[in-house]
Amino acid sequence: MHEETVYDALTNAHGEAGHWAFGTGFDDPLAGVDTTVPDGIDPADLGAYCLMLGDDALVLAQRLTQWITCAPELEEEVAIGNIALDLLGQARLLLARAGSVGVLGRSRERATATIPDEDALAYFRDVDEFRSTALVAAPDADFAQAVVRLVAASTVRLAVFTRLRSSRDPVLAAIAAKGVHELAYHRDHAARWVLRLGDGTEESHRRARSAVEAVWPLLADLFTATDVEQRLAAAGVAVDPAAVRDEVRDVLTQVLERATLPVPAWPAGAPPRGRLGEHGPELAELLGILQGLARQHPAATW
């Protein structure tokens, strides 16, 4: 008599429809949500915007997972893992929304028909198809840089999601309504670490100060809107990143001042290269790790 193993159960569940990123047996993440594109909105624009937000979450989640087994405290490894999972959940919803309006990417032929669109977008796009910013893609020199980057990225993202709750796109509004609670925790958790390091020992202060000097230039292109963002913001769907610049600057200034860290001059604006698919080698290396197994075995399920 054949007895099914736990691995067989995973593989054979739900008609053998396995997912790369999220395991087997998950429902459509947008099930029950009205995915109709609002009147007057170009689906290509909406898909591109969802990729921007989704790619930031996916790439930052991957960076954070590099601290598992490397964080200074066991409790912190759990916290970082949970933050990464929050971001992965946001990425899944946003990439699924991009897929629902027809975004597939040039590398779609590498995937099989059984791989859901959010997985295909995560694992089978090339680096120049990603729309993430340099802030989330940059590697961390040490833990201080990881938390300084996290407080900066989560502050920006929280300001955007807070406004997206009133988006004309019901999917973006729902994602944002859920995400603001997660992002508020991410920001406050990272801020507490910055305070602890900046106002700690001489060595922790030195490392925190170096981290700020490394992260601040990465903010240069965050508040320069692409044409897509400008069109969608005018239509009430997206948020013009320039609209959150002052809020982000005020929050980060308050964090650094309380941490007894010098506040660098705010970087001059720069073209949004990451949003346009222009990236440094650090993203290609990160995606190689993220996508390697899926690309070697594109038809596999687990």
UniProtKB/TrEMBL annotation:
Tell me the organism: Blastococcus carthaginiensis
EC number(s) stated in the UniProt entry for this protein:
1.14.13.149
| Keywords per UniProt | Oxidoreductase
What protein name is recorded for this chain? Phenylacetate-CoA oxygenase subunit PaaC
The enzyme's main class, written as a single word, is: oxidoreductase
UniProt superkingdom: Bacteria
Example of a GO MF term: phenylacetyl-CoA 1,2-epoxidase activity
Q: Name one Pfam family in it.
A: PaaA_PaaC
Q: Which InterPro entries does the entry link to?
A: Aromatic_CoA_ox/epox, Ferritin-like, Ferritin-like_SF, PaaA_PaaC, PaaC
